[in-house]
Write a structure and sequence with these properties.
Blueprint lengths: L6 H16 L1 H13 L8 E5 L5 H8 L3 E5 L3 H14 L3 E4 L14 E6 L9 H14 E12 L1 H6 L4 E7 L2 E10 L2 E10 L2 E12 L4 H11 L2 E6 L14 E7 L1
Parallel strand pairs: 1-2, 1-4, 2-3, 4-5
Antiparallel strand pairs: 5-11, 6-7, 7-8, 8-9, 10-11
């Protein structure tokens, strides 16, 4: 078990390697087609909350939307700005967590997303504020699309290993520590040619359930909630679905 890092420090440290770890070019191509299914014809403006290195923001822009990405990690945003330029995308980026999005963005967005398990990084008190702010930045009739992991299933099956990937001469091991009343997320990065050259970072995640999210979303003012296990609209099952995907309307 590694030393617990503050969430922003965790992602600042990870930022130079994040796109290597997730294969960002393949990710963006796939995500462009996935997001198209949720974008209504009259949508023009989108926000990516917890945008990281901007992969989903770019996928939204490639679908013809005007996009702003919000992200608390300054170093992740630094990578996002460079990547958007390499794709020829005009994406605006703001170094703010969701709970601190300023009022000048109120009622600006048709479509808001928060994917990649972003909301699981936010503690309960801040998440309540975050969802309230997300509701306020949306236009009436807009859609909020979120994705978190179904930790009830993962903890039950003790699925500690998230993924092992290799890229750029490095090997990335992503895994959990399922502790009583606490969940730690770890990334161990090792030099492929010298495994003794490695670095472990750890941060805390929060195990939100469908019922948790439903209560918080409704309290924030969202309605018409729908629940899926994947982006193909497969019905969610709390016992075995890996992901919880929710669409909610303002």
């Amino acid at each position: 078990m590694g030393r617990l890092n503050k969430n922003t420090d965790f992602y600042n440290t990870l930022s130079p390697d994040y796109d290597l770890m997730v294969n960002s070019s393949a990710y963006i191509n796939a995500r462009k087609d996935i997001l198209k299914k949720f974008i209504k014809r009259d949508y023009r403006f989108a926000a990516d909350v917890g945008c990281g290195t901007g992969n989903d923001s770019i996928a939204l822009a490639l679908n013809g939307l005007q996009v702003i990405g919000f992200e608390p990690s300054e170093e992740m945003l630094h990578e996002a700005v460079k990547k958007a330029a390499s794709y020829g995308c005009h994406v605006g980026y703001v170094n703010k967590p969701a709970s601190e999005i300023t009022k000048d963005y109120n009622h600006q967005f048709d479509f808001v997303i928060s994917l990649g398990n972003t909301l699981a990084n936010i503690n309960p008190a801040e998440l309540k504020k975050s969802l309230h702010r997300i509701h306020l930045i949306m236009k009436k009739g807009g859609t909020f699309l979120l994705q978190i992991l179904n930790y009830r299933s993962l903890r039950k099956d003790n699925k500690r290993i998230v993924n092992v990937t290799e890229s750029g001469g490095k090997i990335f091991f992503r895994f959990y520590d399922f502790l009583p009343g606490r969940l730690d997320f770890n990334i161990l990065t090792a030099d492929k040619e010298n495994l003794k050259n490695h670095n472990l970072i750890t941060t805390r995640l929060y195990e939100y359930t469908r019922s948790n999210m439903t209560e918080l979303l409704k309290t924030a003012g969202f309605k018409s909630l729908k629940y899926y296990a994947d982006f193909n609209h497969t019905p969610f099952n709390a016992s075995y679905s890996k992901d919880l995907i929710i669409t909610a309307l303002k």
